[in-house]
Amino acid sequence: MAGFDKVVSSYAEAMAGLTDNMTIIAGGFGLCGIPEGLIKQIKNMQTKGLTIVSNNCGVDDFGLGILLEDKQVKKMVSSYVGENALFEQQLLNGELEVELTPQGTLAEKMRAAGAGIPAFYTATGYGTPVGEGKEVKEFNGRPYILEESIMGDFAIVKAYKADRFGNCIYRHTAQNFNPMAATAGKITVVEVEEIVEPGELDPSQIHTPGIYVDRVIQGSFEKRIERKVLAK
To answer: GO molecular function of the protein, one example (predicted)?
Structure first.
């Protein structure tokens, strides 16, 4: 059983092997369900030239946004700029390459990579700048563009619970992109709120099977709110 134990004791061990110019797939939506400690570890490692594939880039001083401060990110593949002023500034200044991708297409790029599917056709983006230069094929009289899947050198994921074998459960909307991201890394690292022993998780409730996961680390989360709106 010990040979299947994927728990690591330090963030340095969790992200061992990350080097410059790699591609990282990151789970999360806004600041919800983001692997906070793994992102901080990437910042501490000062790796450069990174391509980050994630729905957005956090905010200026939290989440993936902290990787922009020292210009560690060469390229972002995202569905929107979000609440990050530094992201917007670096994009407009030409300091950051950004590939804006429709949200569903981005999710499918991750899922398809995990399923061993190199590319897929989608109607989304046809006739817009998103579809420029991409192969077009017609199905049932409707044009579709060919989109390639994305496999990362690393995938960083946040889960609610995981056992020592890497089987994961996500909590409510914090699930978001995490299940797709978990399948799309050559090395997948999961940061969790709680690690339990094998057999404690209901097999029918597991969202990500441990076969996709290489490393699990116990995290401590701030869970910052991106924008708080209170009813009057």
So the answer is: CoA-transferase activity
% of the chain residues with pLDDT over 90: 90
Residue 189 has a CB neighbour count (10 Å cut-off) of: 28
Which residues partner with 194 through β-bridges? 161
Task: Over range 103-120, report the average pLDDT.
Answer: 98
Whole-model pTM over 0.90 = yes
Per-residue pLDDT band for 83 (boundaries 50, 70, 90) equals confident
Residues 62, 37: contact at Cβ < 8 Å? no
DSSP reduced 3-state for 165: coil
For residue 215, what are the contacts with CB-CB under 8 A and spacing of at least 6?
Answer: 6, 7, 8, 13, 14, 187, 188, 189, 190
* Pair 110, 180: CB distance under 8 Å: yes
Q: Which CATH entry fits the domain spanning 2-218: 3.40.50.970, 2.40.160.20, 1.10.238.10, 3.40.1080.10?
A: 3.40.1080.10
| CB-CB contact of 20 with 169 (8 Å) | no
Distance of CA 168 to the CA centre of its chain: 15
Q: How far apart are CA 125 and CA 79, in angstroms?
A: 12
Most distant CA pair in the chain, distance = 55
Res. 2: pLDDT tops 60? no
Other CB atoms within 10 Å distance of the CB of residue 103: 15
For the chain, the structural domain boundaries read 2-218
| Euclidean distance between CA atoms 110 and 19, whole angstroms | 21
